[in-house]
Write a structure and sequence with these properties.
The protein is mostly helical. The protein is 32% helix and 0% strand. It contains 3 helices and no strands. The protein has helices at 2-11, 17-20, 48-54. The protein is elongated, with a radius of gyration of 26 Å.
């Protein structure tokens, strides 16, 4: 559609066609549709204390002294 609009505007000697016709957006990344995203081998990127706080837990997390 953009190519057709560009061709028509250029055919009628319209100036600044590049300002009128928006550039083609970049293609979207290829997203697999098979389930949740994979967790890296080292585990989640969220530290355990932050994860507990995010899930609504409280108190101290980790070794007690």
């Amino acid at each position: 559609m953009r190519a057709l609009l560009r061709l028509l505007l250029e055919n009628y000697d319209v100036r600044n066609v590049d300002e009128i016709v928006m550039p083609e957006p970049p293609p979207l990344p290829n997203v697999p549709w098979g389930g949740p995203p994979e967790v890296p081998a080292g585990g989640p990127a969220i530290p355990p204390a932050a994860l507990v706080a995010l899930l609504g837990g409280g108190g101290n997390v980790g070794p007690q002294s």
